[in-house]
Amino acid sequence: SSLKTQTTPLTGKKVIVTAGGTRERIDPVRFITNDSSGKMGYALAEELQHRGAIVTLISAPTKLTVPAGVKLISVLTTEDLAEAVTSAFTQADVLVMAAAVADFKPVNSANQKIKKSADNDQMTIELTKTVDILKQVAKLKRPGQITVGFAAETQNLLENARQKIISKQLDLLIANDVSQPGVGFNGDTNQVTILQTDQAPIKTTLADKHTIAKQVVDQISQRVQKEG
Ligand code: CTP
Ligand code: CA
Asked: Residues in domain DNA/pantothenate metabolism flavoprotein C-terminal (predicted)?
């Protein structure tokens, strides 16, 4: 597109985008994950690349094709993702954390397939919290580095989102109410509210994820421009 030859505030900026749902192993044939398709993250990576950014996509498994010109780092677990993000972040101008990160992982991952037992109709898998990647990144953040988080909520959207902006020290937070039809996980459409520390929330209409990506990237671009 003509944008590729034009200079934008994102031209030459190093941007990390994370996408997909992380996987936490229970045993060799089972894992815990979530409904994330990775579509929103991949759409954002593509749009950022079109605006001239140097994009690294750190992705948990998806069925998607990596956008042309985007560097892919594949990960499985939250721990893998945390390691890849924190190592890439030192060189990055912007981090867009669109991955749906597993909040808990099994305390023990069995080496052999877990068998049913004849004398017990119930089983319990003990879980432990995973590392909060954005909270970890907040401690590494230098002036001028921009971090963008996502929040999938089913209730109290703005209230929960505002708390996440503060606790994760985000510049932007893209919130979606996943209880609404057509919004968030897995579909081709989304409707988001873009929250920023220095301005009123922007609510988009329900649209194709590529259209939403353009609107989100517009805001990221403006923020990069402000940071100089
Ligand atoms: N996130 C993260 N590390 C985690 C969990 C989430 O970096 N262990 C990131 C997500 O990628 C997202 C943002 O934090 O950008 C918010 O994720 P969300 O699941 O909405 O919030 P949580 O902090 O996990 O809180 P909860 O799920 O309890 O609402
Ligand atoms: Ca979570």
From this structure: 10-222
Encoded tokens for 115: 């068998």
Ligand 1 neighbourhood includes 58 CB (under 6 angstroms)? no
Nearest-10 Cα torsion for 73, 23, 179, 166: -70
Which of 219, 131, 201 lies closest to 165 in space, CA to CA? 201
Tokens of 109: 């991952």
Answer for the pair 133, 77: CB distance below 8 angstroms, yes or no.
no
Name the amino acid, one letter, at 68. Answer: A
Tokens of 200: 């009123």
Whether residue 5 has pLDDT greater than 90? no
Largest CA distance in the chain: 69
> What's the pTM?
0.95
The answer to whether 189 and 206 have CB atoms below 8 angstroms apart is yes
Instruction: Give, for 138, the enclosing helix (H) or strand (E).
Output: helix 133-138
Q: ipTM of the assembly?
A: 0.99
Ligand 1 mutation target, pool 16, 97, 160, 216, most atoms within 8 A of CB: 97
- Report whether pLDDT(197) > 80: yes
Strand stretches in 75-204, DSSP E = 94-97, 104-106, 127-129, 146-153, 172-177, 189-190, 193-196, 199-203
